């Protein structure tokens, strides 16, 4: 598997499950998207496109937070991939829930994704309401999983290597 790790705003620190997966999953690599604190959508989309081009059709996107929006924007391009796991999407359309740098990815694309996708959300994520996350999943044609009260499903959630998430990824890839 060519797993492409796509962190969100600010990148994913050492206690984030994405950082654990980058070390544990054979073939996983973090995509350097550009400025993690002042994202430029055109740059991020181009870098993701280059990474997918190099990874080939077996690429699996593992996106967190703002990078869920990145994947939705990038999906308008005709490159085939195996699947995408979208975790804790940041609601880039909400000025109340997301910081200003995330707004550059608004409006959130709501077209069906042309590849299998799984959206994992938390019922108490400060960056997206559970109803809005369900709206994204429905629009994108993604399977939806609510993992309960896990905050933003990041390093602060203290998930470590997040075994439940790996099981969800395995499930997605078995389809």
Automatic annotation (TrEMBL):
Short name of any one Pfam family annotated for the protein: Ser_hydrolase
Its keywords, alphabetically, are:
Hydrolase
- Supply one GO molecular-function term: hydrolase activity
Listed name of the protein: RBBP9/YdeN family alpha/beta hydrolase
* Native species: Flaviflagellibacter deserti
């Amino acid at each position: 598997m060519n797993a492409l790790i796509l962190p969100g705003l600010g990148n994913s620190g050492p206690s984030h499950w994405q950082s654990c997966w980058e070390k544990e999953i054979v073939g996983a690599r973090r995509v350097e998207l550009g400025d993690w604190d002042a994202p430029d959508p055109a740059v991020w989309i181009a870098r993701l496109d280059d990474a997918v081009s190099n990874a080939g059709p077996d690429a699996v996107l593992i996106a967190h937070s703002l990078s869920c929006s990145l994947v939705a924007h990038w999906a308008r391009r005709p490159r085939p991939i195996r699947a995408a796991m979208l975790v804790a999407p940041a609601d880039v359309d909400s000025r109340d829930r997301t910081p200003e740098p995330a707004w550059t990815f608004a409006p959130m694309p709501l077209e069906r994704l042309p590849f299998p996708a799984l959206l994992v959300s938390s019922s108490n994520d400060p960056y997206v309401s559970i109803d809005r996350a369900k709206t994204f999943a429905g629009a994108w044609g993604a399977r939806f999983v609510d993992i309960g009260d896990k905050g933003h499903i990041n390093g602060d959630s203290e998930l470590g290597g997040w075994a439940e998430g790996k099981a969800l990824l395995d499930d997605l890839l078995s389809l």
